[in-house]
Design a protein that fits this description.
OB fold (Dihydrolipoamide Acetyltransferase, E2P); five-stranded mixed β-barrel; Gyrase A, domain 2; 17 helices; alpha+beta; homodimer
Chain lengths: 593, 593
């Protein structure tokens, strides 16, 4: 080893030891006769000390050192004159007796400090330098710890980690697949898995009983800040279970992670139906760190000659506690905020519940104080609160109000990153109508689409609706939501061939298509498939939640940008004609696409 | 839960408990008035009992049950009349009071027993049924346990598991890449990693100090029984280390695995140079469970008018202890064996060292007993031993003798699967000449090829040979070999830009090609790259070694066949024109390839 200790290890108890350290030059401090170097590695920073007694060749070497040079220093541990209480090694320093440059460094393009001067693009290009920063490295250390603790918890419960294949079959009924041309089977392609769904179900058919895998999944979709073409799931499946068993088991996993990684006791997780989530929060992943529930106002506000409300399909309010002090300017700004294209409300009505108990609204012309008292009652407002009202087409208005609610929550400081409010959302609809989702192949538009996936069991209570009113059928599906972020989701699966065939039929598959793409699974159901279900957690997102960040990229060692590019290695890139030929494919990109 | 206990759990101490079990019908035993069912799950088998007191509807249900039906049975734990000492639950049975069929089963195409009647192909097609067999499931349980213990060991040593990307860049200097067309970057392709090599080196540049990952890797090569297009590595890297540090650390890992998984104390691992391995075993992964070293006979056998030996570049012998009793028939058969095309020796010469001390050879015409005594002396043979001799061109003869040695080891019972003989092979050559390796692109033929990979550091002692005699340069590279199987390998890496550039030059890269493909790594070396090195274990192979099998397929849940096909899901397969069009590629396979 090119060291006897790490740079985070030495203490006063090591005084007078002969040691060797290796690491990076964080800083050279030349104080005239004295020179100090902060030597950094993953484990900490230790100070190296040089004075006029140091050998001349050492002092000459010191003069050549710059930031991020890699050096090896040997010497004696001595007590510091001026101690640094903020550094665990701050009581000691090394009187250096031998010094070797292991590798030089150009001046890095940005500073390797907790707060850096490098912009996003530069830091992505030199990701290996960005990863040297404490903050970024700590994110990945957190990720490592969470993976270890996930495995510990599941292993104790008899879950087996089984690796499922990465080169599988394209079944483009969901998002787009990434595909891989096969050289040995010309004209044929593998696909990368969007999830190991069918394989984990086959493992249940195989009697594996409890399966998990921390596994890379792939989705060729247009990217957003919190999406990556490759992402990691904690993927799980259990046999002989009902929905509540799965919720209990994985609530336990999240509790274990909070306890072991963040030393937080997570309370038991409430359940909310999808219908209630939409009704009270306009959102299937409500942030329940704060209340501010939707109040439907149609019955109260209509028929008072205010055309906007009279013509609206839905009038809905929230009560922002303690926000009555909002100035006119703030309210105007908020009105502009809801009118932005991303929110797309046509306007904002407000009513102040003043500290003196009086009520004052932006639509006083139509609503007397007596009327406003009904608003206040419906909204449960108290003196000091602010009622905010949106109106319009139902779906759009709920969506806009959900955004406004989150915004008000943020403005009022109700979305503390150190508070965690988990929630099970249950009873999702089985299907949704696809009227042209850009993340699906165009040929799938104008059909029912599985909200979760085609293997999700309908709620048996709604079986009778499958043929007559498929959109009304609830699924045995559930999501775990924490702080408004969907952390995981799953379902009880279909384990009956007939029901699975019926499901594919509903989704517009011909019998032949269904058999060709999923025959292996339907056949498996004929050889003793047990009742089973499971779920998958978005591991990148879970880590970012634990780390207090909104961006999953901060928790991925080498993420891709919004165009799916790795700018560090410059990928994707062209491949040689020789490769294309061997794979029996031609690129048509040159043809002016 | 559809059960209160598993089928492996109940004991006499549970007598009189009301329990529910769920599982598969292994066997229905109808003894007239009494019927027993062996109910199986992953955890064991429990006997269900029915008699004439059982309710009629239950007895009627029992009559409908066949092999592999999934049922739920509730009842009382009672003591068995005739106990089964071979089954941990064999003291009890369940008197069934309620019985429910959870799913029926067709008769499976082969028996779900430890010894099955299903052929390979059938079992692969119905892999989910094959996985129900104890033997196959135990292999995957072993794999799970080995992964957990690997992580435990490395986590304790401060290794961080970091996930590296799967969608990377094609750099076809090694085996062929699998590639993935990018929809968003038309005409461009990702590649799947043959290993995370460059990323783990960048993590060292990033100061991560100790990295590991249990990770899928991909190689598009023509398959053999022990190769899969996707395979799993335990991939590791360390900074500030020298070769011996890496050998010590990972010898420790293997020792930990032997101890925790197989309860075997592994002795310290001897080192052997590549040169010695080739000289004494004709093989860079010698099986050292037995000696039977090569003895070079040129100096002893030449000049006695035996043309075969006189004209041979190499005459080499092994001494098979205790095999002097081999009959003429056996020796003829062995001669035929070495003449098979796979071995391709031209013939086999033998000399018996008889029990009475006399010596008798198949070439007595040319060699007197006096001469044969010299053979015996050189080979260290004793009465009762058999000396086997091959002759011919050096490389080919060493290879043939290596095969013969392994064959004799097997025939003499010296290759016990429960004995483990680990070995570090060190000092590999840096380069080998590629005169048309079918696993490389044709355009790479007629060049030097990196024996390990282009990032391996030459041995500093041989730097002076890099320009003048590249084939003689040794690498700082090492393999861990156990029982003749290469379990892992690695090297000290280049961390200097200039040396790396020189290496690419040696491998026939132009400066531009090197910069385009590996510029990111060479640039990284300019910003303070620490000395580093690492290794990777073939996890599939390590598991199969621990499990006592020669085939890695037995340790992969869903393996592919020799054509790279998954016959269960029927993949690879054709994709739709809509998909091809979106990806801007055309398949040329129809064009009569």
């Amino acid at each position: 080893m090119l060291r006897t200790h790490t740079c985070g290890e030495l203490r006063l108890s090591d005084l007078n030891k002969e040691v060797s350290l290796s690491g990076w030059v964080q800083k050279v401090k030349d104080l005239g006769g004295l020179t100090f170097i902060d030597l950094r590695d993953r484990y900490g920073i230790t100070q190296l000390a040089f004075d006029s007694d140091s050998a001349e060749d050492i002092l000459n070497t010191v003069k050549t050192l710059g930031r991020e040079f890699v050096i090896q220093a040997s010497g004696i541990v001595i007590e510091r004159e001026s101690k640094n209480k903020n550094n665990p090694t701050g009581d000691i320093e090394i009187r250096v007796k031998a010094l070797k440059v292991l590798n030089a460094s150009q001046t890095p393009p940005f500073t390797i400090e907790d707060t850096t001067d490098g912009g996003d693009e530069l830091r992505m290009k030199y990701r290996y330098l960005d990863l040297r920063r404490n903050e970024v490295r700590k994110n990945l250390e957190l990720r490592h710890r969470m993976a270890i603790e996930t495995r510990n918890y599941l292993d104790k419960l008899n879950f087996l980690e089984v690796e499922t294949p990465v080169l599988i079959k394209s079944t483009p009924e969901g998002a787009r697949d990434f595909v891989v041309p096969s050289r040995m089977n010309k004209g044929q392609f593998y696909a990368l898995p969007q999830s190991p769904q069918t394989f984990k179900q086959l493992l249940m058919v195989a009697g594996f009983d409890r399966y998990y895998q921390i596994v890379k999944c792939f989705r060729d979709e247009d990217l957003r800040a919190d999406r990556q073409p490759e992402f990691t799931q904690i993927d799980c499946e259990m046999s002989f279970v009902e929905q509540q068993d799965i919720l209990d088991t994985f609530e336990g996993l999240v509790r274990h992670l909070f306890k072991t990684v963040k030393h937080i006791d997570m309370p038991s997780v409430p359940h909310m139906t999808y219908a209630d989530a939409m009704k009270f929060y306009g959102n299937d992943k409500p942030d329940t760190r704060f209340e501010m529930k939707f109040v439907e106002m149609n019955g109260i506000v209509k028929g008072k000659n205010f055309k906007v409300f009279d013509e609206a399909e839905l009038v809905v309010a929230i009560c922002a506690k303690g926000a009555a002090e909002y100035t006119r300017k703030q309210l105007d700004e908020l009105t502009e905020w809801v009118k932005r294209p991303q929110i797309a409300a046509t306007g904002l009505v407000y009513a102040r519940h003043n500290a003196d108990g009086t009520l004052k609204s932006s639509v006083d012309k139509f609503y007397s104080e007596e009327e406003l008292k009904k608003w206040a009652e419906a909204c449960g407002s108290a003196p000091g609160d602010l009622i905010l009202v949106l109106a319009g087409a139902e779906e759009k208005t709920r969506k806009a109000m959900s955004e406004l609610r989150l915004e008000m929550g943020a403005r009022l400081g109700l979305r503390d990153k150190n508070v965690f409010s988990p929630l099970w959302v249950i009873d999702f609809p089985l299907l949704e109508w696809n009227d042209g989702d850009p993340n699906l192949l165009a040929s799938l538009a104008g059909r029912w689409h599985a909200k979760h996936h085609p293997f999700t069991s309908p709620n048996p209570a709604d079986f009778h609706l499958l043929a007559s009113d498929p959109g009304a059928v609830r699924a045995n599906a559930y999501d775990l939501v924490i702080n408004g972020v969907e952390i995981g989701g799953g379902s009880i699966r279909i384990h009956d061939r007939e029901l699975q065939a019926q499901m594919f039929d509903l989704l517009g598959f011909s019998k032949e298509e269904a058999q060709k793409q999923f025959g292996f699974l339907m056949n498996a159901f004929e050889f003793g498939a047990p009742p089973h279900g499971g779920l998958a957690f978005g591991f990148d997102r879970l880590c970012s939640l634990f780390g207090g960040s909104d961006s999953i990229r901060d928790f991925i060692a080498f993420p891709k940008n919004n165009s799916g590019r790795d700018v560090m290695i410059d990928s994707p890139s062209e491949i040689s004609d020789e490769q294309l030929k061997e794979l029996s494919i031609l690129s048509t990109a040159g043809a002016g696409s």
